[in-house]
Description:
mainly alpha
Amino acid sequence: MKIKKHFWFQQLLRKMSNPNFYPEIKEFEDGDFGYHPLPLLKKVVNQMIQDDLIHDYEAIDVLFKDVSSECLKAYLPEED
């Protein structure tokens, strides 16, 4: 299970670094429309992976303190 989780994060990072994945990637990089800059998002995701590898979830939990559990669950892919 843990290997699949890391594999999923690695896939996400690869997709985010592909300029063809999001045609509007320039807008994300500029931080337009209320989005965070893409390089910042990539760094945060990478740090979350590093934290997960050492089983340190405190900072991740604090980062999501204003996000409800329902919103976090809604982000996850549907289980079969």
